[in-house]
Amino acid sequence: MTALTFDHTATGYGLPHVRCLAHAARLAYKDETEVEETARGWGFDRVRSFRMPLSRPFVLEDTQAYVMAGDDMIVIAFRGTEPEQVRDWLSDVNAPQVREHSCEGRVHWGFQRALDAVYSELSGTLREFRDSDQTVWVTGHSLGGALAMLAAARLHFADDVLADGVYTFGQPRTCDPALARAYEQAFQGRMYRFVNNNDIVAQVPPEPLYRHVSEVRHIDAGGRIREKPMSVLGGLTDSFEGHTADVFSPGADALRDHSMNAYITHLDAAAR
Fold first, then answer.
1. Is 199 designated active site?
2. Residues 6+ apart with CB under 8 A from 168
3. 239 counts as catalytic
4. Fold of 15-270
5. CB 67 within 8 A of CB 139
6. Using one digit for the tens of pLDDT, what is the confidence trace for 170-182?
7. Residue limits of the Fungal lipase-type domain (predicted)?
8. Predicted model pTM
């Protein structure tokens, strides 16, 4: 694996930058000390972490995120779910929708609660750190991807900050069609959702009540990143290849494909 070097002058989509933001999303799983040390090694001289408790009945105990800033770039990253929490977290997928605070449309109530826990401090930190019109990027994996998408929406619709890019990995469906349409119009060419083969979390909550936002980048069973949608037959074939790749555990890749390490492995290879 080649060394990770952030291009702080990046302004648009490119696999080397996607790879960096994927590593930033994985870093959100680490403790505050490691987050700060790693971020400074990437050239960001201001770092602030957030960890806010969540009350029951939501299955997660807290919301975690961090902001890292340099002279040219700011990255906001949200922590997702640990692999052993995925099955428990999936029990929340039928939760009711609630109206989003900042714009038209409705969202998963648990996602909104998780974002509400940190949003005030996070947006205040962004205002504090953004002192020279830096670009703003938002990222996250799993539940962190849902929070990244919703945080970017709220920053834009409520606080008039349009992120330069929102890159998520293994993100679940987050909102209703009305919010998805408003989001796609505002974030055209800025939002990219990566899905690794049979990642089960990207398939919930169910349609049509919930909808994904564009634009998807599919990682196929061979680890190739597809820039364009596959045909129906091609998608079914690719899914079958993934499900049958492990002869000793057929079908197990629905959870295995959700691992952030799997996303990192494929993006490291693609960005060479």
1. yes
2. 25, 139, 140, 141, 144, 145, 146, 148, 149, 192, 193, 194
3. no
4. Rossmann fold (3.40.50)
5. no
6. 999 999 999 999 9
7. 75-207
8. 0.89
